Amino acid sequence: MSSELGCSKSSFYWYFKNRNEYIARMVKHWGEISTQQVILSSSVAEKAEDLFVRIGMVPAAAEQKSRILYHYYLGWYERYKHEQIGDEELHRHIGMLREQLLRI
């Protein structure tokens, strides 16, 4: 590995005790970077209306559907805020929303 990096074995082991430590630190570093990217991308608020327009809906229809989705969410939250919902029920609602809002 040191020859691939263009350094001597002793300089490589100055930073890492062994190959396993090198791999562990690389995986940790990758995880930190990936986590930061996910947090940053999910922190950017995008309105549902913009998402609908991005998939090809005309703005008027996108606005209407985003309002419907918002009100559906409010009702959903009120209905299930004190109880657990099963996977089957959740998938049924997701399927219904996809069919009604996206026509897929």
Task: Explain what you see.
By secondary structure, the chain is mainly alpha-helical. The protein is built from 6 helices and no strands. This is Transcriptional regulator, TetR family.
Write the SSE topology.
Elements lengths: L1 H4 L3 H7 L3 H25 L4 H7 L4 H22 L6 H16 L2
Helix pairs in contact: 4-5
Helicity, as a percent range = over 70%
Number of domain modules: 2
User: Structural class per helix/strand content?
Assistant: mainly alpha
What integer value in Å does the Rg equal?
A: 24 Å
Short description:
With 104 residues, the protein is mostly helical. It has six helices and no strands. The protein is elongated, with a radius of gyration of 24 Å.
Spell out the key features of this protein:
2 domains, 104 residues, elongated, mainly alpha
